[in-house]
Amino acid sequence: MQQSTAKSETTYATIIAAAMDMAAAEGIGKLSLGELAKRTGISKSGVFSRVGSLEALQAAVLDEYDRRFADEVFMPSMAAPKGLPRLVMQVNLWLKKGSDEAPRGACLYTAGAFEFDDLAGPLRDRLELGVARWRASLRKTVLQAMEAGHLRPDTDPEQLVFEIYSLIIGVMHDVRFLRDATAPRRMGRAFNRLISTYKSFNEAE
């Protein structure tokens, strides 16, 4: 029984890994159970029995992306002191992940946001929820930086998060579409300049 369960879990992990690669390279909307069956060598019925519907597969892929993002960006940033140091760490780790040119480095949320911006449905709702959660995390860090006196008390957290998000989308565009290897460095300079306009007078000194 345990051997059968372990085999089933391994098969499921194989399917999700292949689906992650496919979604990163082609878009989460391009996932299909039939194509996954071809790529993994598992029968279509075998894929279906483990992931269920296409919608369930898409949700599982985003759950796995969330887990990896937490491991690579969110959790490591928690080691930095609260406030501006943590915000800088979050952005730097996010930048590192988002500027990876390899297909596996693609941000499923950024790509999915453009893919499904004019569509309605559960997948769009799931994508929006993921984006909202991360922006809320950034906003919390900005508020902590304000409370710690690192950022000016008149800082608009929503505005700063919007500007940071815009920089990240810009660097992903230039790295992945324009193949501009200098984009991460440019984004880093832009972020430093942006933060300098929000720093409190004590921090600026």
TrEMBL record:
PROSITE patterns xref list: HTH_TETR_2
DNA-binding region: 32-51
Annotated transmembrane regions: none
Ranges in a coiled coil: none
SUPFAM superfamilies: Homeodomain-like, Tetracyclin repressor-like, C-terminal domain
Signal peptide: none
Gene3D superfamilies assigned to the protein according to its UniProt record, in alphabetical order: Homeodomain-like, Tetracycline Repressor, domain 2
Protein name (Swiss-Prot/TrEMBL): TetR/AcrR family transcriptional regulator
Lineage, uppermost ranks: Bacteria, Pseudomonadati, Pseudomonadota, Betaproteobacteria, Burkholderiales
